[in-house]
Design goal:
Elements: E1 10-12, E2 19-21, E3 25-26, H1 46-58, E4 63-65, H2 74-83, E5 91-96, E6 98-100, E7 106-108, H3 112-126, E8 131-137, H4 151-162, E9 166-172, H5 176-183, E10 188-192, H6 203-211, E11 215-216, H7 231-240, H8 244-255, H9 268-276, H10 284-291
Parallel strand pairs: 3-4, 4-5, 5-8, 8-9, 9-10, 10-11
Antiparallel strand pairs: 1-2, 6-7
NADP nicotinamide-adenine-dinucleotide phosphate binds next to helix 9.
Amino acid sequence: MIEQTHLGGNFTLPGTAMTLNRVGYGAMQLAGRDGNKLVWGPPRDVEAATSVLREGVASGVNHIDTADFYGPHVTNQIIRKALSPYPDDLVIVTKVSVRRGEDGSWIPAFSREELTAAIHDNLRNLGRDALDVVNLRSMFSIHEPKEGSIEAPLRILAELQQKGLVRHIGLSNVTRTQIAEARAIVPIVCVQNHYNLAHRADDGLIDDLARDGIAYVPFFPLGGFNPLQSTKLSDVAARLGATPMQVALAWLLQRSPNVLVIPGTSSVEHLRENLESSTLQLSPEVIAALEGIAGEA
Ligand SMILES: NC(=O)c1ccc[n+]([C@@H]2O[C@H](COP(=O)([O-])OP(=O)(O)OC[C@H]3O[C@@H](n4cnc5c(N)ncnc54)[C@H](OP(=O)(O)O)[C@@H]3O)[C@@H](O)[C@H]2O)c1
């Protein structure tokens, strides 16, 4: 049995003084929705969004994932209003290389002008002098990692880092080749890709990054826009007296010590449930039962 601890213990991003509790919070759910436009406009209940952020931080969350293209701008503005002046140990990770179309689409934005504007948008809307960690999101395919060089935009981001606007750099939606290409240019502290109980393309990559001390931060840890649904998961959860989402998060935490989870929620109740998942103990038998989920149709 792997002993789980409050908020999953912690992990220090390589080459930094940033020690993150392994259960963090993903802020994408704080923006609203306008018809088919997802992550768009203000939330229905700004007070609830504020409460989620404040309770998360009060409960020990010191890792928040965001992007200025959530809303756009809305999520960062809510974070600033709810949490500024920020606690000293709070690490806000943002991402760049996407802009939103008026129809809500997600458009690649890799030019020098777009990347520079994105950094300044984040600085202004979060109310910070420098951004803690900025992930460059690859966009050769919006949905999954796809090969292609990320050298040009990464060099621009590295220049912005040298100017003091960005402390550390990470990557998102990337292949192994892109990670290797990036690491030859700048130190990479974290990788954020799609991964959860049912979507395990990065199994090998997680282990390799663990060996190199780099954080792996799964996005869509609960299935994202299509929350995980599996009889196996529900059965295990019922046996443990937990919820399926708690089991899904506990499984990620036991998966590897470099996995940092950032479940997204707009609800204080779900936030509490998600934070509590860190103390759920999973036996080898339970883990074996959960392994089958990835093979389900
Ligand atoms: N790098 C990238 O390309 C990328 C892409 C997507 C997301 N992200 C980041 O990853 C974070 C996590 O992803 P995500 O928010 O899209 O998806 P997620 O965490 O996998 O799932 C969020 C969904 O699960 C629901 N949920 C959360 N906790 C729950 C619980 N305890 N019980 C039942 N339902 C629950 C939420 O609804 P409620 O609001 O009702 O709780 C929401 O519908 C995002 O917030 C964002 O910061 C990054």
